[in-house]
Write a structure and sequence with these properties.
Distance between the termini: 45 Å
Helix content: 25-40%
Strand order of the largest sheet: 3-2-1-4-5-7-10
Strand content: 15-25%
Bound molecules: 1,4-dihydronicotinamide adenine dinucleotide, D-galactaro-1,5-lactone
Number of helices: 10
Structural class: alpha/beta
Number of strands: 11
Shape: globular
Radius of gyration: 18 Å
Largest sheet: 7 strands, parallel
């Protein structure tokens, strides 16, 4: 068993795919967890945890849920590309409620950002954590906004935050792109634990991908400060997945893949030099 936080940790989006996997992992480590989601929690609530059904739009309930918490692991919200009006409530207003609660409790925020905040970088590039945001849709834009909210609350209020630009966190990689972007559930869970337990983090960014040999797109992040190194790798799936590509030139050109191609309406590809 690893170290444990001294106070409870709030997990939003606990009923989602990553929330369920993380709850299982941290509960087994003996952590005291406060779980919340707009959906019912589908598993048995583990010992040391309690679950409250709540909407991220309800700021008063979020404040109450965060009381006495050491950290908020913020996984809740719309997790795929959707129309703007569906995203603004959970991902923008909800995020504001999380940061206000963190400010009041002097809690740290661990934000599940996404590769879609930088999705329109080309796969031929190698980009650092300080790269320019190039969101590939309204969802990715909400993640870029979330990271910037972290910067605001750090500089103005001293609220610490870690922004994890998750690649593709699934039980297994399922296509050639994920040979670069895949993050295993165990690597994800260990990273989350480090984000909570590390002494001082300020406001930082870490790429959420396993130790994939094809993961040459992303470099220079906060992993050393966090004491995290991924242990799993998509490489073992290369034989079966290397040829599994879409055939769509937009999807295959950019890091964000299919999200870039959704609703794409340029008549000619964007010239690369304008993105430097
Ligand atoms: P998910 O969609 O399974 O989980 C998101 C959860 O948020 C759901 O259980 C949903 O009910 C909850 N939620 C949605 N609107 C809400 C609201 N208004 N109030 C309260 N709860 C609400 O997504 P998943 O895969 O578990 O991802 C977790 C987080 O990680 C998300 O923020 C997602 O954007 C982010 N992420 C995930 C990646 C992945 O590969 N799984 C990649 C990059 C980022
Ligand atoms: C994400 O941000 C999504 O939440 C997830 O469903 C995947 O689409 C992932 O990115 C990805 O890029 O593979």
């Amino acid at each position: 068993m690893t170290d444990r936080p001294t106070k409870p940790v709030l997990i939003t989006g606990a009923a989602g795919n990553l929330g369920r996997a993380l709850t299982k992992f941290l509960a087994a480590e003996g952590w005291t967890l406060r779980l919340t989601d707009i959906m019912a929690f589908p598993d048995a609530v583990p010992i040391g945890a309690d679950f409250t059904k709540a909407d991220l739009n309800d700021g008063v309930t979020i404040l109450r849920l965060a009381e006495t918490c050491q950290a908020i692991i913020h996984l809740g919200g719309v997790s795929v590309e959707r129309p703007f009006e569906e995203i603004i409530g959970p991902n923008i207003r909800g995020l504001f409620h999380i940061y206000e609660a963190a400010r009041r409790e002097d809690a740290r925020v661990i934000f599940a950002s996404s590769n879609h905040s930088i999705g329109f970088h080309e796969r031929t590039e190698t980009i650092g954590a300080d790269t320019q945001f190039q969101p590939d849709g309204f969802y990715g834009l909400s993640k870029a906004y979330g990271e910037l909210m972290g910067r605001l609350y750090w500089f103005k209020h001293g609220v610490e935050n870690v922004n994890i630009r998750i690649g593709s966190c699934f039980p297994e990689p399922v296509n050639a792109r994920m040979l670069a972007t895949w993050l295993s559930y165990p690597d994800f869970s260990r990273l989350m634990a480090r984000c909570v337990l590390t002494g001082k983090v300020g406001s930082c960014v870490v790429w959420g991908a396993s130790n994939n040999k094809r993961m040459t797109w992303w470099r220079s992040d906060a992993r050393e400060t966090l004491g995290w190194a991924p242990q799993d790798s998509a490489d073992t799936f290369a034989g079966q997945l290397a040829g599994k590509v879409s055939g769509d030139p937009v999807e295959e050109r950019y890091m964000g893949g299919a999200f870039c191609a959704m609703g794409y309406s340029r008549s000619a590809p964007a010239p690369a030099e304008l993105f430097d």
